Amino acid sequence: MSLRVLMTVDAVGGVWRYAMDLGAALAATGHRVAFAGQGPEPSPAQRAEAEATGELAWCDIPLDWMAERPDAIAGAGPWIDGLARRLGADVLHLNSPTLAAELAPGGPPVLAVTHSCLATWFAVVDRAPIPEPLCWQADLTAAGLRRADAILAPSRAHAAATEAAYGLSGIAVVPNGSRAPLLPPGGGSGAVALGRWWDKGKNGAVLDAAAEHAACAVTLIGATEAPDGQRLEARHATLAGPLPYEQAMARVAEAAIFVSPSIYEPFGLAALEAARAGRPLLLSDIPVYRELWDGVARFFDPASPAALARALDALAGAPGEREALGAAAQARAERLGTEQQATAMAALYQRLAAMQGVI
């Protein structure tokens, strides 16, 4: 049965790619998808991409992690309620659980998807409690998770971390998918990495330090400065800056190695995209990467620039191993397409709608 799904998005992070790829796959199987966005406005190209799948509505309410206090985002829930009524949504798919906190009762069933959160980030990156000025965000996330009819994570590792952080159980897991093209393994030159490099969880400083000692050239694609001014200063790696999606994927396809030094990664969509491009994966040894890529990638200690430099040069000097690893990663990645993701998500939507008496 076709469902009307209202999915929230933002234009500044990985949620945009997640939503666009999943939305297009759902629409291809007959579901009607609309998008509700907040925060910085999408570019004309982003707007066109979304509208190729369904309606895109936008409000100027800031994203929770860009807001300084809770009243700045207080109107988001009522705005989504009104949009859901106007569109006749059967299911609300919220890519930020905080948005569920102020939804009115009696609306369509709510699926809250946790792509990341402050509590799990601070537990891993700073290994410290959330600072007092930010506690309201964690409280709002907790309220949204309690309000949701179901909670979803993109990996077992992130589901377990979220359950531990908020005292929850039963979080469902559907891995992210990608429609990045499948390309022949082998070839290329240098190493490439993708991320929002101002985020300490991406561990860009260690990759830059490794680049000082590695013979293999290293390029970082992605923003280096946060909206609040926090930035990564790189002295040894090449900074390509943020690129349009197609250009970023082209740069990945031209590289000999894809590297991710992240210490906090709820899924790691860039690694999946690189694997689909047939690139060998050189990944930080963290739980989510072991869960998804164990046996088809090379791993390194993300606290050691020297270990990363050695791993880069060893792989750069072994073209046969790179091609074999790229082929193995690509075979694993073929199980993580948007078709499989959309099938699993549609089944979850159907169960939610049936439980709420929507269908």
UniProtKB/TrEMBL annotation:
Residues 12-177 form the Glycosyltransferase subfamily 4-like N-terminal domain. Residues 235-331 form the Glycosyl transferase family domain. The keyword Transferase applies. Keywords: Transferase. This is Glycosyltransferase. Gene3D superfamilies: Glycogen Phosphorylase B. GO terms for molecular function: glycosyltransferase activity. Pfam families: Glyco_transf_4 (PF13439), Glycos_transf_1 (PF00534).
